[in-house]
Amino acid sequence: QVQLVESGGGLVQPGDSLKLSCAASGRSVNRITMAWFRQALGKERDFVAAIRGNGGSLHYANSVKGRFSISRDNAKNTVYLQMNNLGVEDTAVYYCAADANVILSAIRDKQQYDYWGQGTQVSVSS
Questions:
Q1: H helix runs in 29-90, sequence order
Q2: What angle is formed at CA 77 by the lines to CA 15 and CA 60, rounded to 5 degrees?
Q3: Beta-strand (E) ranges in the chain?
Q4: Which of 2, 44, 65, 121 is most solvent-facing, going by the fewest CB within 10 Å?
């Protein structure tokens, strides 16, 4: 079992930055795939970014590449999502997800992840 708790969401203006945190318990974030997804009102839950375990690769959705950065702190067992140059299109509930058995070719598929946090709201508005 993995428990995930997100934090760091809020209301910001276009062009601002925000850093989300996902604190994990039950498994080491260094050994499993951790990911961020987001769900805008009335839309599907979409992949944002992922980091594979054991020093593995980073993956990003095209819509956030160059603006968002995923990282982890093994000592704190926490994964972060640094979001820069936010736009109104980034408004959504952001979810942290985890799984030990995600295959690389399906890393963007939400069906691959068994563990989810409760979500944190990010709102970008002028």
A1: none
A2: 40
A3: 3-7, 10-12, 18-25, 33-39, 45-51, 58-60, 68-73, 78-83, 92-99, 115-116, 120-124
A4: 44
User: For residues 39 and 58, what is the distance between their CA atoms, to the nearest angstrom?
Assistant: 21
Q: What is the pLDDT tens value at each position of the chain, 126 positions in all? A: 899 999 999 999 999 999 999 999 988 888 899 999 999 999 999 999 999 988 779 999 999 999 999 999 999 999 999 999 999 999 999 999 999 999 999 999 999 999 999 999 999 999
Beta bridge partners of 115: 98
* 80's tokens: 């972060």
